[in-house]
TrEMBL record:
Family in the record: Belongs to the class I-like SAM-binding methyltransferase superfamily. TRM61 family.
Its EC number(s): 2.1.1.220
InterPro entries: SAM-dependent_MTases_sf, TRM61_C, tRNA_MeTrfase_Gcd14
Uppermost EC category: transferase
Annotated keywords: Methyltransferase, Nucleus, S-adenosyl-L-methionine, Transferase, tRNA processing
GO BP field: tRNA methylation
Pfam families: GCD14
Protein's name in the database: tRNA (adenine(58)-N(1))-methyltransferase
Places the protein is found: Nucleus
Catalyzed chemical reaction(s): adenosine(58) in tRNA + S-adenosyl-L-methionine = N(1)-methyladenosine(58) in tRNA + S-adenosyl-L-homocysteine + H(+)
GO CC, any one term: nucleus
Disordered, as annotated region: 253-292
Residues of the tRNA (adenine(58)-N(1))-methyltransferase catalytic subunit TRM61 C-terminal domain: 69-306
Length: 311
């Protein structure tokens, strides 16, 4: 996705190569991540696609199958990776991720601590935000999840920017070696208030914490704990509403036939046939917009707090 060289400079590749990870786009709700192998093929409802035909083509290319069907080959950006990754846990989506990165004031060179890693959706975007000279240290108490996350970061080219550790942050806190070194900390834990004292030790002066919680009761208890060492405590709920915008053809009628549009479709068709009146010239297509039926609702609450400066 974001391959790096020996000094961790990001080098965005423009063409597909053997061994690359690509996002095969069929439609907005049907994408998959595939590793390119010259001898392999992809079979789907649009036909058979040879990987060898993809090599050397620029990302974003439209490629055709033996049947004439097509897909698009997209670079696996953090945004697209969030939509195709394996869900080992519930993940954060783009609306929450972008809000978190902005309010945590993450810029290139930052050191970010995260717990827990989960499916690595947020970790991937954090890595891009701190590149090329920063680093993300992410922890999960589940050893197999941590191992799977490492494999994903290898596939996406981010292993030099993300270190995955196995640790129970609620019970043990963050490792002492990070004391006073973190610019920001992100918590996605069932009992974040247990980790907040450790977070206070890890953050630099004026550093920022974000805690993600699905229930408001978790937020209330976390805020009670935050008041002793943190200030500027704020909680947000990010709701995203998407719209479908497309062309629709609308038929027009003349004279008394306009009233036929008030009838149900089957009755309207019967009436037109009985009277021998056909449609007039159809009106030009109209662009219409409506809220998407797949719009996501509540995902969780984001609580931000800034470490108080030492007197």
């Amino acid at each position: 996705m974001l391959p790096t060289d020996s000094v961790k400079r990001l080098s965005f590749k423009r063409c597909v190569s053997e061994g690359d990870l690509v996002i095969v786009y069929e439609r907005h709700d049907n994408m998959k991540a595939i590793k390119v192998c010259e001898s392999a093929v992809l079979q789907n409802r649009f036909g058979v696609f040879k990987h060898s035909d993809w090599i050397g083509k620029p990302f974003g290319s439209k490629v055709f199958s033996s049947k004439g069907g097509f897909v698009y080959l997209l670079a696996p950006t953090p945004e697209l990776w969030t939509l195709v990754l394996s869900h080992r846990t519930q993940i954060l989506y783009i609306a929450d991720i972008s809000f978190v990165i902005m309010y945590l004031e993450i810029v290139p060179g930052c050191v970010v601590l995260e717990s827990g890693t989960g499916s690595g959706s947020l970790s991937t975007s954090l890595a891009r935000a701190v590149a090329p000279s920063g680093h993300v240290y992410t922890f999960d108490f589940h050893e197999q999840r941590a191992a799977s996350a490492r494999e994903d970061f290898e596939k996406t080219g981010l292993s030099s920017l993300v270190t995955v550790g196995v640790r129970d942050i609620q019970g043990e806190g963050f490792p002492e070696k990070f004391t006073g070194k973190a610019d920001s900390v992100f918590l996605d834990l069932p009992q974040p208030w247990l980790a907040i004292p450790s977070v206070g030790k890890m953050l630099k002066q004026d550093g920022i914490l974000c805690s993600f919680s699905p229930c408001i009761e978790q937020v209330q208890r976390s805020c009670e704990t935050l008041r002793s060492n943190f200030t500027d405590i704020r909680t947000f709920e990010v709701l995203l509403r998407t719209y479908e915008v497309r062309e629709v053809k609308m038929n027009s009628f003349q004279g008394d036939e306009d009233r036929s549009t008030e009838l149900p479709p089957c009755k309207r068709k019967q009436r037109l046939n009985e009277e021998g009146n056909g449609l007039e010239n159809p009106s030009p297509p109209v662009v219409m917009a409506r809220p998407s039926s797949e719009a996501r609702g509540h995902t969780g609450y984001l609580t931000f707090a800034r470490l108080k400066c030492a007197a």
